[in-house]
UniProtKB/TrEMBL annotation, chain B:
This is histidine kinase. PROSITE patterns: HAMP, HIS_KIN. Its EC number is 2.7.13.3. The keyword Transport does not apply. Residues 1-36 are annotated as: Disordered. It comes from Streptomyces hainanensis.
């Protein structure tokens, strides 16, 4: 009912980039349609009809990003998502049907970075893909290579984080959120602001994306996720980094 | 009797946030008065009727008994007195001419022999008056008795009450026996006056006894009256509770049927009607549920092929350039219609989620003006729409749903109204002190026809019959209405003053989903 957001194709980095995409989708027409549309836009697309086949293709194809349908026969999308997240920081975008709200929440908890509601135009799908992939391309901007916040060490140029010297495996959205919040410690960001800057929603995004990502991030960086030190909630306003 | 009070059976899939604090249902007055006493209720009337019957029967019985016994008591006394007096009179002899002194002596003799009580005896002969007492004449003897005493040889009597004391007065003429069965009056008439205090006391005691017997009877009649009232009132009360329970939507309410009287029949009839009603309502609900599921399933099923089709519209559009003109037009048509179909199916899905009460509110704290500005910017409407959006209104709402509301109203105004379209934002205080967010979308078009206005939020309602299909799905305003309702708010359509276009006003709680402070 709402007109689709148009891709912001002004970034020169986007126009040249061609991504390797793996699509796991059980419905043949959706699989073929999305594959056709994305290939038409210049991406290299590999498809799989089941979660098992998708995981197998993952190792061999080494995609830049995974497009994952949540409703799969056999091993479902959430299980696939968890399996991937156990060992990889591969960006994951879920394909879902709006109204399957429970699936969205479960999928985000499982570690997906973003989601797309079906049916969607190819330009919408591509815009999401670009937004997720761009998260790794933020330049350091003259900051020191590694910042220390408490027991956290954040490497802005290396795009990695460690706690007590131990490297953390963060999903792209988690890494990007941590970078964004820690860049301005003690500044409060509303969910909509975070959706705009971290997820690149020029439009009203789903605030549950932020909440789920914060929960996942807290589980990885906080000593006690129930009473967070690094990512703090300001009820009614949003989130902030610190004060420690 | 126990009322089976079932669990309320609302739709099970109801989002917790669906019921906002401002969702005020009609305040149903829950009268707890199962035992409310009414001044002239059934109970009072039953008791009155019982008391009336008891009073009439007890009173009649007592009155009849009293009369009979009284007559019997007085009759015995007066019979004794009359016959004794007659015997006395027959025994006396008078020497003529009458000597008053002798006469008084004779009268005193008769008075001494009075039975059953002593009496006063008076004699009258011509102008001579004499008595056994101190006064020669009596005040108790009536002229009536005098007349009868003169004409009736065997004597006559009369009961007279004077100063509260009953007297028996007997008049007896003194006669000669002329022959067999023939008598001649001598002109002397003797009167006996006998007070009857004992009989009076007996009769009074009798009256008191009759009254004392009737009063406990009345009191005793209260007991069956109350029992009868209870036996009627309890089923009636239970019936009332059950009816109210039914009215409250608990259609499986039943009454326990006891006994075999008319009230049991009524209870049975109630149960049968309730069962019938429950059955019909269940069938209707199931039919409605089936229809809703069907709409939901259809849109679900349409969505999967659409997902494939929509993803390739771009390929079609670009590929059409290399095709011959007819094929290219056909391809572009399919591409364009696929897009519209996708919007329609999305809207149908959205509506069926509202119908199934599965729509959820995902509220967030936002700046109202910024939210609307984003909506306008995102759709490139900033140049077409005049925005009067004061900054600093913090509100809690579902941003996606609010975006849909504003976009549908502004889109509707741009399509059907005339420029300039204005979006105004403000706050208002409700009657109960709650704060409301007021969003107004006005245009300068022809306004909404009076026949259209009541249906403007109906699904697929076409204001213009000639236009077979609008740009939107036909569900936009219906979805707007549902989204506003989900926030616990209202949306209304009206025409501006003096035919200056249409005005849509959305009022939503400033803080949806929070308990009012």
């Amino acid at each position: 009912m709402t007109p689709a957001p148009l891709p912001t194709a002004s970034d020169p980095l986007d126009t040249v980039r061609m991504a390797r995409l793996l699509l796991i989708e059980d419905d043949p027409s959706v699989r073929e349609g999305v594959e056709l549309g994305l290939r038409h836009r210049g991406h290299e697309v590999r498809t799989a009809a089941t979660g098992e086949a998708g995981l197998a293709a993952l190792r061999e194809f080494r995609p830049d990003l995974l497009l994952l349908d949540l409703m799969l026969p056999g091993m479902n999308g959430v299980q696939v998502c968890r399996t991937v997240r156990e060992e990889s920081q591969l960006p994951i975008i879920m394909l879902t049907a709006r109204g399957d709200d429970f699936d969205v929440v479960v999928g985000l908890e499982a570690g997906a970075d973003d989601y797309i509601v079906k049916p969607a135009r190819t330009e919408v799908i591509e815009a999401r893909i670009r937004a997720v992939l761009r998260r790794f391309e933020e330049p350091g901007g003259g900051r020191p290579a590694v910042e220390f916040h408490g027991e956290l060490a954040i490497d802005r140029s290396g795009l990695s984080a460690a706690k007590n010297g131990e490297r953390l495996t963060l999903a792209p959205s988690e890494m990007r959120l941590l970078l964004h919040l820690s860049a301005s410690p003690e500044q409060v960001f509303s969910r909509q602001q975070l959706l705009e800057h971290v997820w690149e929603y020029s439009h009203h995004g789903d605030a549950r994306l932020v909440d789920a990502c914060v929960r996942r991030l807290r589980n990885k960086i906080e000593d006690v996720p129930g009473s967070p030190r690094y990512i703090q909630t300001l009820r009614g306003f949003g989130y902030r980094f610190g004060p420690l | 009797m126990r009322l089976r009070v079932p669990r309320p059976r609302g739709p099970s899939r109801r989002g917790p946030s669906r019921r906002g604090p401002s969702r005020r249902g009609p305040s149903r007055r829950e009268a707890t008065g199962g035992d409310r006493r009414r001044p002239f209720g059934l109970r009072a009337r039953l008791v009155l009727a019982f008391l009336l019957v008891a009073a009439v029967s007890a009173g009649t019985t007592a009155a009849l008994t009293f009369r009979e016994v009284r007559n019997a008591v007085l009759g015995t006394a007066q019979d004794t007195a009359v016959s004794a007096f007659r015997d006395q009179v027959r025994e006396v002899y008078f020497n003529l001419p009458l000597n008053t002194t002798d006469l008084v002596g004779t009268l005193r003799t008769i008075a001494r022999n009075g039975r059953p009580h002593p009496w006063y005896v008076y004699a009258e002969y011509g102008s001579i008056r004499a008595s056994s007492g101190t006064s020669p004449t009596s005040t108790v003897i009536t002229p009536e008795l005098r007349r009868e005493a003169h004409s009736e040889p065997s004597g006559s009597f009369q009961r007279v009450v004077k100063d509260g004391v009953p007297y028996l007065t007997i008049g007896m003429p003194v006669v000669f026996e002329v022959g067999e069965n023939t008598v001649m009056p001598t002109g002397i008439v003797l009167y006996a006056v006998m007070p009857m205090p004992e009989e009076q006391a007996n009769v009074e005691a009798l009256g008191v006894a009759a009254r004392n017997g009737a009063l406990p009877g009345l009191a005793v009649a209260l007991v069956p009256a109350l029992i009868a009232a209870r036996s009627v009132l309890r089923p009636v009360r239970e019936l009332r509770q059950a009816t109210r329970s039914m009215g409250g939507g608990r259609l499986d309410t039943r009454i326990e049927v006891r006994g075999n009287d008319e009230l049991a029949d009524l209870a049975r009839t109630f149960n049968e009607s309730a069962a019938g009603l429950e059955h019909s309502v269940n069938e209707l609900r199931q039919a409605e549920e089936r229809a809703r599921r069907f709409a939901s399933d259809v849109s679900h099923e349409l969505r999967t092929p659409l997902a494939g089709m929509l993803a390739v519209t771009e390929v079609l559009d670009e590929g059409a350039e290399g095709l011959d003109s007819d094929t290219a037009r056909a391809v572009r048509l399919i591409s364009a219609e696929t897009g519209k179909l996708a919007v329609l199916v999305e809207d149908l899905m959205e509506i069926s989620r509202f119908d199934a009460r599965a729509a959820e509110l995902n509220t967030d704290e936002v700046d109202a003006a910024e939210t609307i500005r984003r909506t306008l910017e995102h759709r490139r409407w900033t140049d077409l729409v005049r925005a009067e959006l004061p900054d600093g209104i913090r509100t809690r709402l579902d941003p996606r749903r609010f975006d849909v509301v504003v976009a549908n109203l502004v889109g509707n105004a741009l399509r059907h109204g005339g420029p300039p379209v204005t979006v105004r934002l403000g706050t208002a205080a409700g009657a109960d002190g709650s704060a409301w967010l007021v969003t107004e979308v006005a245009d300068r078009g022809p306004g909404i026809g009076p026949d259209v206005l009541p249906h403007i939020f109906d699904r697929f309602y076409k204001a213009d019959a000639a236009r077979t299909r609008s740009v939107g799905s036909g569900l936009g305003l219906a979805i707007t209405l549902e989204n506003v309702r989900l926030h616990g708010g209202t949306v209304r359509a009206a025409n501006g003053p003096g035919g200056t276009g249409a005005v849509f006003t959305v009022e939503m709680p400033l803080r949806t989903g929070e308990a009012p402070a």
